[in-house]
């Protein structure tokens, strides 16, 4: 479970999150959406314990986050954070050595699914293939919480669909809580349980995706357009 309690985060004079309170429960895939600079990455970094709130508290699985919580949170950052001279196989082996919950068998299945060349040097991979490798690394962990910052950015529109289908088959939805930020809302809509909209550091709406479809007969983009106006 993830709880943000009245969380404000300031970077010098800039308020990136403004008294945000939200509770996310296991067994669901959440989408966090909002314009550039609305505070999405800040929220993910607070949950991962990479940065800390200016006010309020972040609680993950019952514990106040006061340091990096990499043992329970698998965090896929927006940035490329691996050793460029390693090849794909060596990168997988490195992650396996770092995280006790890293599932080598799952990683190998995902590499095959993503059609990644195990011998290719990371620095020589295309942006799209680096994106695929990042997804493999983060989903290969049997961590209770998976947070992914823009997992589809840089991926070709033609392959996004198959990657999204892959995401769902490699997430253990009975046990894991997944939080994804994305601008590619339409591509990811199919796998989301709930969507949370953020604007200027405040949560301005939250919906169960099935309710939007069944009760309001609209998709996420229609709903976002209506609340952002
Ligand atoms: N390290 C930092 N120092 C100063 N300001 C920052 C820092 N990181 C983020 N900000 C500012 O905080 C606000 C929220 O940034 P954040 O990266 O959380 O937004 P975002 O919703 O993830 O944006 P994007 O969709 O562009 O990735 C922005 O105005 C950004 O410029």
UniProtKB/TrEMBL annotation:
- Is the keyword Repressor assigned to this protein? no
Q: Which UniProt keywords apply?
A: ATP-binding, Nucleotide-binding
- Superkingdom assignment: Bacteria
* Record InterPro entries: AAA+_ATPase, ABC_transporter-like_ATP-bd, P-loop_NTPase
Signal peptide, first to last residue: none
One GO MF term on file is: ATP hydrolysis activity
Where the record annotates domain ABC transporter, the positions are 2-225
Q: Which Gene3D superfamilies match?
A: P-loop containing nucleotide triphosphate hydrolases
Name the UniProt record assigns to this protein: ABC transporter ATP-binding protein
Species classification? Bacteria, Bacillati, Bacillota, Bacilli, Bacillales
């Amino acid at each position: 479970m993830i709880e943000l309690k009245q969380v404000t985060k300031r970077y010098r004079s800039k308020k990136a999150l403004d008294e945000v309170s939200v509770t996310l429960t296991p067994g669901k895939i959440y989408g966090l959406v909002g314009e550039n600079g609305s505070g999405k990455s800040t929220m993910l970094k607070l949950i991962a314990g990479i940065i800390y709130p200016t006010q309020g508290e972040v609680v993950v699985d019952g514990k106040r986050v006061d340091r990096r919580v990499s043992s329970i949170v698998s965090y896929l950052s927006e940035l490329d954070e691996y050793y460029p001279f390693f090849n794909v196989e060596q990168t997988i082996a490195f992650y396996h050595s770092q995280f006790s919950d890293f599932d080598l068998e799952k990683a190998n299945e995902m590499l095959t699914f993503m059609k990644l060349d195990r011998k290719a040097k990371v620095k020589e991979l295309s942006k799209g293939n680096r994106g695929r490798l990042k997804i493999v690394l983060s989903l290969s962990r049997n961590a209770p919480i998976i947070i992914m910052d823009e997992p589809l950015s840089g991926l070709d529109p033609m392959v996004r669909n198959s990657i999204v289908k892959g995401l769902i088959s490699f997430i253990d939805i009975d046990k894991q809580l997944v939080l994804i930020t994305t601008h590619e809302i339409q591509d990811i809509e199919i796998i989301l349980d709930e969507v949370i909209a953020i604007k200027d550091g405040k949560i301005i709406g939250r919906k169960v995706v099935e309710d939007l479809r069944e009760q309001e007969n609209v998709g996420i983009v229609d709903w976002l357009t209506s609340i952002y106006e």
